[in-house]
Amino acid sequence: MLQVKNVTKYYDTLKAVDDLSFEVKEGEIFGLLGLNGAGKTTTFRMIMGLIDDYTGEITLNGKKISYDITDQIGFLTEERSLLTKLTVLEQVKFYGILKGMNEDLIEEELDKLLKILNIYEYKNKKIKELSKGNQQKIQLITAIIHKPKLLILDEPFSGLDPINVELFKKLILDLKKKGTMIIFSSHRMEHVELFCEKLVILVKGRAILSGYLKDIKKDFGQKVITIAGDIDEDEVAKQDGVISVEKIKDEYKVNIKSDDYTKNIFKFISKYDNITKFTVEDPSLNEIFVSIVGEQYEN
Question: In whole angstroms, what is the distance from residue 293 CA to residue 299 CA?
Fold first, then answer.
């Protein structure tokens, strides 16, 4: 288990991380979210032992983060960190040796992963000859070649087309099944919602929302009603409990304060005789994120 307990980090007088606490269990995918500058990168660096001048405690399976255990951690960074003049094999061997692997095992694991990601033919190609998407695949391979116990994924789908996103998803979920602890960070909330059961949202280094996603949605309270048909948008917006009404293509999204208002909205909508759809759902993580983070920046 990864445990982050009451961690605070200053850069001179700037508090980059403010009393942050969370834990990630084996086989769990945990979301660490926030706008640029929220403190995510600093948190990653502390977890990896690259920054050690902080207060609080970070442990991996009960041991303090240090260079003695960082070989158990893998990191796919948002920025490109590949040596473009090396071949794929040379690049992966370089990372594997840094993680304490022998060359034969590195090549054996590399062959497996190249086949899974459908790029085996690029094994002896130079990094600079690969597309952006295929370079991202090599970055993922360098992060997992040593079978880390903890894997940090920062914008893992950057530069990938939909087919390759699916390959990454399958590989990430397979690592989860094998017990890897995964921290997942992305600005694409639909990806976070797909993977993460638990998450933390940071604003200016402070956790403003944390917990299980299902509980966060429940506690948020608001609901989204989707209506298909011809309605008077302005009249619906005047109904009690309605926060906003937005037309998206041929449907209307009606945000309401809570499920308590659903019955009255349905009764009002029933006067229209061409309604073909009326569904009530929890708000998306993206809607919650925009609402909560937006409020914090306005304060």
Answer: 10
